[in-house]
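Weekly structure sync, notes
Attendees: PL (lead), two postdocs, one rotation student
Agenda item 3: pending single-chain targets
PL asked that the sequence for the first pending target be pasted directly into the notes so everyone works from the same version. It is reproduced below exactly as submitted, 298 residues in total.
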Amino acid sequence: MTLKSLNDIIELAKGKETRRLVVAAAADKPVLEAVKNAYQAGIIVPVLVGNKIEIEKISKEINFDLSNVDIYEENNPSKAPIKAVALIKEGKADILMKGLVSTAPLLKAVLDKENGLRKASTLSHFALIESPYYHKLIGITDAAMNIAPEFNDKVNIINNSVEVFHRLGNMNPKVAIVGPLEVVNPKIESTTHAAMLTVMNQRGQIKGCTIDGPFAIDNAVSKEAAEHKGITGDVAGDADILVAPELNSGNILYKTLMFMGGCTSAAVIMGARVPVVLTSRADTDKSKMMSIALAAAM
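Predicted structure, written out during the meeting:
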């Protein structure tokens, strides 16, 4: 199944059982607007944790009817994620979303050994990108969490991103390990990692996808560029997922696409027992809404 646009994600989410989205520290206007839009589209049912008076005040401003919405009072933003995670563990919510709280306390609550939601050994950021210059949706990982992932971390990051595609109906996504060039150079660790990951995939040590690399970015997304360099294979010029070498390049790639490439994204944190929607203030309303839809579609 090939997804062409983020609207396809909304349709997928609408076709599934409506999920309950719990927002930690929900007294945030842009977040509540995105939640309202997703609720009205029939994608999620909101569960709000935070300052009840502030939540009600903002909701009145944006015409968000809270009459059928559960609100849990927690005036300390740092404690709101703990309450939100507890609600998921109690079976009262299915997706976690960050509100007006910094990322650190949210992830601390998710990663708590006794009371958290950790599933995999590595949490990672995954963004699904709709570009006017590419023929389908493409994933980028990791643009927000893992600063300098070691080799085993990269295996986990790939598995997390492949899980997204499996849940969306693509059971064999094409994974391109990208870096500065398309040949192995022992002095550039990302290229040796790429070759090792490719061999692991060929030997069945990383399953459920087709991995190739190293690729320079042009060879991964342009058939013409790949053919010009004599690069063949299923992944070349047709990647579903781009795996960045480390956070610097991943973040620059992601934000360049957003702010200069005319792209829209949906992003989640993977590796927890439930999808985590972690939007930034710079994200557009559409990106926030699409991130909720992506979590619900999974």
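Discussion points:
- The mean pLDDT is 94.
- Residues 11 and 136 are 16 Å apart (CA to CA).
Action: rotation student to compare against the earlier draft before next sync.
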